[in-house]
Amino acid sequence: MNNKSQYQRLLIVAIICLIALALFSLLIGPAGFSLANLNIMRFRLSRIMLAIIAGSSLAASGASLQAMFKNPLADPHLFGISGGASLGASLSIAFIAENIMPSFGAMLGAIVAFLLIFSYIKYNSFDNCLLIGILINSLTASFITLLKLALPAHKSQSLLFWLIGHMGAVAINDFWLIIPLWLLGMGLLWSIKGELEILSFGHDETKLLGLDPEKISQIAIIANCILIGNAVAWSGMIGFLGLLTPHFIRLKAANLRIVLPLSAILGAIILLALDSLSRLRFLWIKSEIPVGALCALFLSPLFFLLLLKKNHATYYR
Amino acid sequence: MRALILVGFCLALSFWLLGIYKPISPKEKYERIVALSPSFCETIASLKLEHLLVGVVSHCQGEKFDHVYKVGSFAEPSFEAILKTNPDLILAINHPMAKKIIEQLSKNIKIFSSEPNSLEDIYQITISLAKLLHIEERGEKLVEDMKRAFKKPDLIAEKTFLIALSASPLVVAGKKTFASEILESWGYKNQAQGEIAWPLWSLETLIKDPPDIILLTSDHELTLYQKLINNLNVKTKIICPKKHILTSPSPKLIEDINYLKTLL
Description:
Strand content of chain A: under 5%
Number of helices of chain A: 13
Number of helices of chain B: 11
Structural class of chain A: mainly alpha
Helix content of chain B: 40-55%
Order of helices and strands of chain A: HHHHHHHHHHHHH
Structural class of chain B: alpha/beta
Radius of gyration of chain A: 20 Å
Order of helices and strands of chain B: HEHEHHEHEHHEEHEHEHEH
Number of strands of chain A: 0
Distance between the termini of chain B: 78 Å
Largest sheet of chain B: 5 strands, mixed
Shape of chain B: globular
Number of strands of chain B: 9
Shape of chain A: globular
Largest interface: A-B, 44 and 45 residues
Largest sheet of chain A: none
Oligomer: heterodimer
Radius of gyration of chain B: 23 Å
Distance between the termini of chain A: 18 Å
């Protein structure tokens, strides 16, 4: 993508597509379309909003992390926050499900994981941040496995079902918490998109331009933790979206100023489309399909086909 | 090189010879039983043979099984722990993890494996197991007791229902489960009529076509279900048992069903 007007045109088209898809998604579902049934419309609206928020959060987070770490494999779920959120949800299902939703437990877990990561990068090298994330993920995965084994069968089942990831459990009142966190995370990331682009050239180059790479990294990590924790807490583990969506955009552009907003919108479009599909309850099985499973099912082959056709723009320099 | 080949051949031959087993002949009496699923623990207890259990999985819960040696979990039983109990009979459900262990153990130990999906399966398993343990009469009586307990109670109106296993997401029992089978035989109608056993139930469908009752299998997530029903503004009665019921395909269903009748 060479000029600004081309980028702006694409951005407008993407936003129009998202709005059109959201309206279309409001019309479809197993209960059909009826404006008279406000209950169904309210439920669909909350689900659409969550798909947009979770999709854009995961994709924007993936785009920023891949640029920050100069690594095409950087993924929101590698960051440890998802692991923390999953463990938080698991503990709440195991011990306090009578009182709070697993999502609140997940939010607490994400905060604890974030504090661990942040306290590490405050005093240590930023480069090992992904390793710390992987470490937290492994640790939390072990705890979850132990919980699955130790818990009675019915709690084990609830735990397993929560971990598959789906979008239906959010109530409209929950958005008083979800939207401010999303805006905060996106705002933070947006405010440093130029600095992140420079950071992707390397720490020395960033210092030469008079910027503080440590400070930029810290802000980016705070933003990512907020976005990922918020998304995982309410929609469960949705893999591949954060990893692959920025790659789709990078087939056209390498500049993070372009990749970040377009990834966020594309992530929202993809998750909304797949969630609408999952809502249709596939004919013969008469069950919703967890949207996390659909993501990997559709995105992986599509991305493989695109890779075969196009040259992948580089983002690590 | 030749020496190496010879040593390799000898090793292979010795492993093969060690692997040869005597065909297992049915024993007169099985005295050391390992149950690799909660339903088998309960079946053995219902047949009044719990004193023969030398190993159970950690998911077998209840006073009768507290003192019995644990051989791992239902999903991942431990090969070594099973061998440590020196069993002469292993009772297992055919699921992928257990299958591997069954294959390894079946050379030397009698394995009784099954896959109970319907009420008829539960009856058959009870009778076959009783036959294997030479207590046919007790088995037949237990099946008769089950059939009697599962009969339609009086004064039950025709209602639609969902049997819920998890609140977030809402996972319910499909029509091809024994729990649904019992309630449908009473004239109730399960709304989950699809082919899969435990479908993820659409909340939209719940709003559009709420069932008369949602039957929980335990009181573990009662508050979450109540919140869900309130959020969706659905008029559905939640029936919540105080103990874990309707999830084990065993004669324990007699106790579960008698208790359920008091709730309905």
